Amino acid sequence: MPHWVKSGWRTASKTPVKNRDLWTRLREFDDALSITWTWVQGHAGHKWNERCDSLVLQERLNSARGISQG
To answer: What's this model's pTM, rounded to 2 decimal places?
Structure first.
């Protein structure tokens, strides 16, 4: 993320970073906490990426039903 900020929120291929609004919100936590950002290949069996995908899917299903876990 620090590279995106320095490059004006552009990727290495000079295209705008997707979901900049969400990354900006996450950056607020980065300012308050000691966070290490690490890119991982999606859907490649990475334990914590798979956990995140599972939580997102669960929340999407709950949202569609009008239920939220917060």
So the answer is: 0.60
